[in-house]
Amino acid sequence: MIKLQERFWSKVNISNKNDCWNWNAGCFKNGYGEFEYKGKPIYAHRMSWILTFGEIPQDLFVCHKCDNRFCVNPDRLFLGTQQDNVNDMIQKGRINHELLRKNHDNFLGENSPLFGKKQGNSSSKYYGVAIHNTLGRKYWRAMVRVNGKQVHVGNYKTEFEAAKAYNQYVIEHRLSNPINIL
Ligand SMILES: [Zn+2]
């Protein structure tokens, strides 16, 4: 029987201490590496943490300093609470599709008008963001559905800014009032 450590690290492109070590095997749909541990699928970066530092305390997340989902370099991982993870995500402007999708699944289901679909004439790849053209002026608008009503979060110069505003809004309201958002 191959040892767990060997089995795990053979699937990793190990590089310099300060670089990303990318996962070189199967991934979950959301893009994080997948490993089988005790007969169950586990995130590869979590496995890396366990093998290096020991068990992950309950309710804590293993987060990436480098924001690279494939990366399992233990030096680039840190433990955080859900709030840390959310703050980190907002700060980096990362769109947490997992979290957003979970909201959609939980509260409106896949038939939600926002679920994975573009709004209006949007070509945006982000939830809740649509491009608008008014009198020749182009801007990105962030919209969120709250209690069945569309809330206008704001207009932004870039798609990315609008996506960040959307996320910020969703997360803040989700935390205070989880049932009524999205
Ligand atoms: Zn990395």
Question: How would you portray this structure in words?
Answer:
By secondary structure, the protein is an alpha+beta fold. It is built from five helices and nine strands; from the N terminus they run H-E-E-E-E-H-E-E-H-H-E-E-E-H. Strand 8 and strand 9 form a beta hairpin. The longest helix is centred in the last third of the chain and has 18 residues, at 159-176. It starts with a helix and ends in a 6-residue tail after the last helix. Residues 102-121 and 175-182 have low confidence and may be disordered. The structure holds zinc ion.
Major sheet attributes? 3 strands, antiparallel
Unreliable spans are: 102-121, 175-182
Class derived from helix and strand content: alpha+beta
Number of helices: 5
Give me the count of strands. Answer: 9
Overall residue-averaged pLDDT value = 75
Strand content: 15-25%
